[in-house]
Write a structure and sequence with these properties.
With about 100 residues, the chain is mainly α. Helices cover about 45% and strands about 10% of the residues. The chain has a two-stranded antiparallel ribbon with strand order 1-2. The radius of gyration is 15 Å and the shape is globular.
Length: about 100
């Protein structure tokens, strides 16, 4: 396995099994489900695609649309909680965008 596209020391998210291998190569793996720097975002875990979708929508269609889409896809009875958790996780990366 090679990480050919990775240059510099940008943080990456990987599954637990590959984390030691990646860290041995000097690449930072944050202990967080989502990370963004500038126009690059990475996520790990079972909600990775949801975080990346929310982040993409936030930056292309706006917060209201991102919230609506995440809430629509969330399980019945958990829509508000899931949307809140996802959007707060994605918003936490916002300082890195400034």
């Amino acid at each position: 396995m090679q990480v050919a596209v990775v240059t510099g020391q940008r943080p990456l998210d990987f599954i637990t099994v590959t984390r030691p291998w990646v860290e041995e190569r000097g690449i930072t793996v944050p202990d967080a489900p989502f990370h963004a720097e500038g126009s690059i975002a990475t996520a790990g875990g079972c909600l990775a695609s949801v975080y990346l979708a929310a982040w993409t929508l936030l930056h292309t269609a706006g917060e209201a649309t991102a919230w609506d889409v995440i809430e629509y896809a969330a399980p019945v009875g958990e829509k508000q909680e899931v949307a809140q958790r996802v959007m707060s996780t994605v918003r936490a990366a916002e300082p890195a965008l400034r």
